[in-house]
Specification:
The complex is a heterodimer. Chain A is of the alpha+beta class. Chain A has one helix and eight strands; from the N terminus they run H-E-E-E-E-E-E-E-E. In chain A, strands 1-2-3-4-5-6-7-8 form an eight-stranded antiparallel beta barrel. By secondary structure, chain B is mainly beta. Chain B is built from one helix and eight strands. Chain B has an eight-stranded antiparallel β-barrel with strand order 1-2-3-4-5-6-7-8. Classes of the chains: A alpha+beta, B mainly beta.
């Protein structure tokens, strides 16, 4: 098992633990989203369980974190598999109870010195 | 000093991290911020690098409307959104003569403005881990490609 795999497992376990309290108060819905970034390429994918997020993006690689909501607006923070931290702010425009669109600003910084920001447009389906 | 600062209206933030100016290299950048009012803050990023062959430096200044988003994990989450500007300069020596002396310095400037955002996780009252970016506007935004400028930082709130 590589150091990267170990770090990834640690990140996921950490975020699952710290999200436990938030999940207890959420509606525990699942959702999946695909986001279009630079040149509208699909380069961010996210699965959410309550406030816990697990995803794969071009700036954070594999990432895990949490989001908090205020109405249709949300903000999030988490850790990536490359020893990175990420933060995001976004707005979710709900078309139907299970389908919506996201507008999101993401930023990331890794321990190796990588730094990048993105504007993502996402399609999200929840159940 | 910290006890005094806790009741002060103006909070000064100082941090260090890595920026897009030197992305990919572990070259520290300085982050400065000032909560001018309860809802508004001004922040700046200062970053740069200089070697014998090239230099690159940049400054970003943002004005953000900020809000405390409440409890998050074992701390709190603060969010800001607004606008900002970036000015960067860089130069590269493109030739070397027979004696090894550098010549023909090619210079370039970047000036860009755009929307900016900040997300800061505060595990402790006076400590922040923040992500702050200004997404530069240009013709490429029509293809959703923004001129991202910014940094992540860890620092203290004084």
């Amino acid at each position: 098992m590589t150091a990267r795999s170990l770090m990834l497992i640690a990140v996921i376990l950490c975020c699952l633990c710290v999200s436990k309290a938030a999940l207890a108060g959420s509606d525990n819905t699942f959702s999946g989203a695909v986001f279009l970034g630079d040149s509208y390429a699909p380069n961010n994918f996210r699965l959410s369980f309550g406030s816990f997020d697990l995803g794969l993006s071009d700036i954070s690689d594999l990432y895990a974190g949490s989001r908090v909501w205020q109405g249709d607006y949300y903000a999030g923070f988490g850790l990536g598999s490359q020893g990175s931290v990420y933060g995001l702010v976004g707005y979710e425009w709900k078309w139907l109870s299970w389908l919506g669109m996201n507008f999101e600003f993401d930023g990331s910084m890794s321990a190796a010195g990588q730094a990048a920001g993105r504007v993502y447009i996402g399609l999200v389906a929840g159940w | 000093m910290f006890a005094f600062a806790s009741d002060a209206l103006a909070v000064v933030r100082v941090g260090v991290g890595f920026s897009t100016v030197t992305s990919g290299r572990q070259i520290p950048a300085l982050y400065l911020g000032l909560d001018a009012t309860k809802d508004w803050s001004v922040s700046a990023m200062l970053a740069g690098v200089k070697t014998e062959a090239y230099y690159s430096s940049g400054i970003m200044v943002n004005a953000l409307r900020t809000k405390d988003w409440g409890d998050f994990w074992f701390g709190r989450l603060e969010v800001g959104f607004g606008g900002g500007a970036y000015h960067g300069e860089k130069g590269v020596y493109t030739s070397v003569d027979d004696s090894g002396k550098l010549g023909d310095l090619e210079k370039d400037q970047d000036n860009v403005v755009g929307p900016a955002f900040r997300v800061a996780f505060k595990p402790f009252k006076y400590v922040h881990i923040s992500i702050e970016y200004m997404m530069g506007l240009g013709s490429s935004v029509f293809s959703n490609a923004w001129g991202d400028v910014g940094m992540g930082a860890i620092g203290v709130d004084l």
